[in-house]
């Protein structure tokens, strides 16, 4: 397995008027060719910040303060804005929540796809248009030649998300980051959109990072799950293993709060406490410690990864 | 052991709180031509919908976006006027009463609604206390100390610490805002609470606490709920019965557990198959491809699901299936639905 994306000790901070927010703290993960890794966690855990930081899309207040991230051997943290602009779209692409807001509202959807392939693949206008129609067909939009000229407002949310996928994968990127791609879509549409992403990934060998708050969606659609909490990755394992044998107390809590088809409401447990204030200068090594019932005195020591199995690691001194 | 109450079979039909019959709502599109040209095209948002809600019962309302859930909710809550049909609430006919008049009616306080995102639906310039006090002032005419006492009581019932009452919505967390939205709805002590996706914007951990709160309130106050959600796992947790809608019409009604375990209508089957599950993707899962048909002047003689349906035949294109009764207090609108095994 060769890692397409290799992230090591990657840290991000935001400077705000009320202090420095330690949004990501030395996170490390790899994504292999053709692999789908899900990044799950509650809101504010740093899932989206990870994606934005990797692609150089952080806003002006945020900066990468340490670590490395290489995509196909290219160091992203050292890349110039110009290099990043080339990599984005050509080698790494991202799709966003709320596709209607992410698309240009006053440009026909086909044109928006053609723009990307002209820019990154250097096709002529005619070839780019043909490619755009082909992409619309590939993502299952009926009557693609006619829909080429449609505007985003004329399409349903599910159709807009397909257009965004078409834009993202038109250049056959090595990495696709899907940030809550189906939040706000109906479950039926969600299933179809995720099918499209999965089949494209299978065909092209594209690595996918699926960012979601929905553990059940991650369970169905990813090969591996990394659980984030307050800017840390706390557990990372093959999906079936993580669901069957969660070891980090936070992962166990998250699973215990997720409604299932079988259990009743009485079987669900809320997670006590809340995320720590990431502006604190004295953040503990384990940011879950204050919410954790398995805390030990040893938890004050700097965090270290424990490798429980070849593909299962956990950042906890007292895993279950 | 609380929380399981929701799924225990009870007979609610004997004494319905809400009895909706043949309810329809059509919206005209822009008029074509000058001076009484052709009749305008109509969007059939809710079409011939009938159901009852018992006292203390929780009814789930599910379906894709655009299926008419929100319009139906607005009709039940009497925020819009139906085109035809009847809404009987506490044995009183409300359908004929214009929504504008109902706003000042005595029964206004008896039907309350919790909107989707409390962060968006609460006046940003109201503190939590103002937001909860507003319906009490307008609908119950409370003032002064009596008002304050009722606000505090509603907040306490909803697990909202009193020291948070001076805060504005943007100073509250998502879960706290949801509690404010629920507190302001239960403050006038309604008989019927309409919940429109109350947990859609919340993390799972917070969602659990809000769902548990709703169960507690149902037990302590004896309120009936109409619970709208796209999250079928949540509907299953909270609801006694469930109504499945497709393009303005009811396609299936029944006890929640029976409908989810053994759906009769092919649309319900597709909807349930599409729900992600922690135990992973089921092989050969049914996929509902395509989008619903247009709700503008649909063919009155064709099943609305025809064309997208995996089991439909030509008959479905010429004969609208009626909602038929099945054993176990179930109903389904499909020519091919068979008795549950």
UniProtKB/TrEMBL annotation, chain A:
Instruction: Return the CDD domains for the record.
Output: ABC_NikE_OppD_transporters (cd03257)
Tell me what topology the record assigns in the membrane. Peripheral membrane protein
Q: Which GO terms describe its molecular function?
A: ATP binding
Record has Membrane as a keyword: yes
Q: What is its main location?
A: membrane
Domain ABC transporter as annotated: residue spans: 7-255
One Pfam family linked to the record: oligo_HPY
| Signal sequence annotation | none
The record ties this protein, via InterPro entries, to: AAA+_ATPase, ABC_Ni/Peptide_Import, ABC_transporter-like_ATP-bd, ABC_transporter-like_CS, Oligopep_ABC_C, P-loop_NTPase
List, alphabetically, the SUPFAM superfamilies matched. Answer: P-loop containing nucleoside triphosphate hydrolases
Gene3D superfamilies from the xrefs?
A: P-loop containing nucleotide triphosphate hydrolases (3.40.50.300)
NCBIfam families, alphabetized:
oligo_HPY
Would you identify the family this protein belongs to, as annotated?
Answer: Belongs to the ABC transporter superfamily.
Q: What is the name listed in the Swiss-Prot or TrEMBL entry for this protein?
A: ABC transporter ATP-binding protein
For this protein's source organism, the top of the classification is:
Bacteria, Pseudomonadati, Pseudomonadota, Alphaproteobacteria, Acetobacterales
UniProtKB/TrEMBL annotation, chain B:
UniProt family annotation? Belongs to the ABC transporter superfamily.
Localization of this protein: Cell inner membrane
Q: Which PROSITE patterns match?
A: ABC_TRANSPORTER_1, ABC_TRANSPORTER_2
Record carries keyword Nucleotide-binding:
yes
- SUPFAM superfamilies tied to this protein: P-loop containing nucleoside triphosphate hydrolases (SSF52540)
| Protein name as it appears in the record | ABC transporter ATP-binding protein
Q: Which UniProt keywords apply?
A: ATP-binding, Nucleotide-binding, Transport
| NCBIfam families reported in the protein's UniProt record | oligo_HPY
- InterPro entries linked to this entry: AAA+_ATPase (IPR003593), ABC_transp_ATP-bind (IPR050319), ABC_transporter-like_ATP-bd (IPR003439), ABC_transporter-like_CS (IPR017871), Oligopep_ABC_C (IPR013563), P-loop_NTPase (IPR027417)
Organism listed in the record: Falsiroseomonas selenitidurans
Known Pfam families for this protein? ABC_tran, oligo_HPY
Entry annotated with the keyword Transport: yes
Topology within the bilayer: Peripheral membrane protein
**Gene3D superfamilies, per the entry:** P-loop containing nucleotide triphosphate hydrolases
Task: Name the Gene Ontology molecular function terms of this record.
Answer: ATP binding
Q: Which parts of the sequence belong to the ABC transporter domain?
A: 18-272
């Amino acid at each position: 397995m060769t890692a397409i994306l290799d992230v090591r000790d990657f840290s991000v901070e935001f400077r705000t008027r009320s202090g420095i927010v330690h949004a990501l703290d030395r996170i490390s993960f790899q994504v292999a060719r053709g692999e789908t890794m899900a990044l799950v966690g509650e809101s504010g855990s740093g899932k989206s910040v990870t994606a934005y930081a990797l692609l150089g899309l952080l806003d002006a207040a945020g900066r990468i303060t340490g670590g490395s991230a290489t995509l196909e051997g290219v160091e992203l943290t050292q890349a110039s804005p110009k290099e990043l602009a080339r990599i984005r779209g050509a080698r790494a692409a991202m799709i966003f929540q709320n596709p209607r807001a992410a698309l240009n509202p006053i440009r026909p959807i086909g044109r928006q796809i053609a723009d990307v392939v002209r820019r990154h693949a250097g096709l002529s206008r005619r070839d780019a248009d043909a490619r755009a129609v082909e992409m619309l067909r590939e993502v299952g939009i009926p009557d693609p030649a006619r829909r080429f000229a449609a505007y985003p407002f004329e399409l349903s949310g599910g159709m807009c998300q397909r257009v965004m996928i078409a834009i993202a994968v038109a250049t056959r990127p090595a990495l696709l980051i899907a940030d809550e791609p189906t939040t706000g879509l109906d479950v039926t549409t969600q299933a179809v959109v995720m099918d499209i992403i999965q089949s494209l990934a299978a065909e092209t060998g594209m690595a996918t990072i699926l960012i979601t708050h929905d553990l059940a969606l991650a369970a169905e659609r990813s090969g591996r799950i990394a659980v984030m909490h307050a800017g840390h990755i706390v557990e990372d394992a093959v999906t079936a293993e993580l669901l069957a044998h969660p070891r980090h107390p936070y992962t166990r809590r998250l699973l215990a709060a997720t409604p299932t088809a079988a259990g009743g409401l009485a079987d669900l447990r809320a997670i006590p406490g809340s995320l720590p204030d990431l502006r604190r200068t004295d953040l503990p090594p384990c940011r879950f410690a204050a919410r954790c019932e398995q805390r030990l005195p040893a938890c004050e020591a700097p965090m270290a990864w424990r490798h429980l199995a070849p593909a299962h690691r956990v950042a906890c001194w007292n895993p279950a | 052991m609380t929380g399981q109450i929701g799924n225990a079979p009870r007979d609610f039909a004997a004494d319905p709180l809400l009895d909706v019959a043949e309810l329809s709502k059509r919206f005209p599109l822009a008029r074509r031509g000058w001076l009484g040209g052709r009749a305008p095209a109509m969007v059939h948002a809710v079409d011939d919908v009938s159901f009852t809600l018992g006292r203390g019962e929780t009814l789930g309302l599910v379906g894709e976006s655009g299926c008419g859930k929100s319009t139906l909710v607005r009709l039940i809550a009497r925020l819009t006027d139906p085109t035809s049909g009847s809404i009987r609430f506490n044995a009183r006919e409300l359908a004929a009463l214009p929504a504008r008049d109902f706003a000042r009616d005595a029964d206004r306080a008896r039907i309350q609604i919790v909107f989707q995102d409390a962060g968006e639906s609460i006046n940003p310039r109201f503190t939590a206390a103002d937001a909860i006090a507003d319906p009490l002032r307008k609908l119950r005419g409370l003032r002064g100390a009596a008002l304050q006492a009722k606000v505090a009581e509603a907040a306490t019932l909803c697990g909202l610490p009193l020291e948070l009452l001076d805060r504005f919505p943007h100073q509250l967390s998502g879960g706290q805002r949801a509690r404010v939205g629920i507190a302001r709805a239960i403050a006038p002590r309604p008989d019927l609470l309409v919940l429109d996706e109350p947990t859609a914007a919340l993390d799972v951990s917070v969602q659990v606490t809000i769902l548990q709160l709703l169960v507690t309130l149902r037990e302590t106050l004896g309120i009936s709920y109409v619970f709208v959600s796209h999250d079928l796992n949540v509907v299953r947790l909270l609801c006694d019965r469930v109504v499945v809608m497709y393009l303005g019409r009811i396609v299936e009604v029944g006890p929640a557990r029976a409908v989810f375990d053994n759906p009769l209508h092919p649309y319900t089957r597709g909807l349930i198959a599409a729900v992600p599950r922690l135990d992973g993707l089921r092989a050969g899962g049914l996929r509902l491809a395509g989008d619903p048909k247009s709700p503008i002047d649909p063919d009155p003689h064709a099943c609305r699901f025809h064309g997208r349906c995996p089991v439909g035949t030509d008959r479905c294109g010429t004969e609208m299936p009626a909602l038929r009764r099945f054993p176990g207090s179930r109903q389904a609108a499909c020519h091919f639905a068979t008795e549950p095994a």
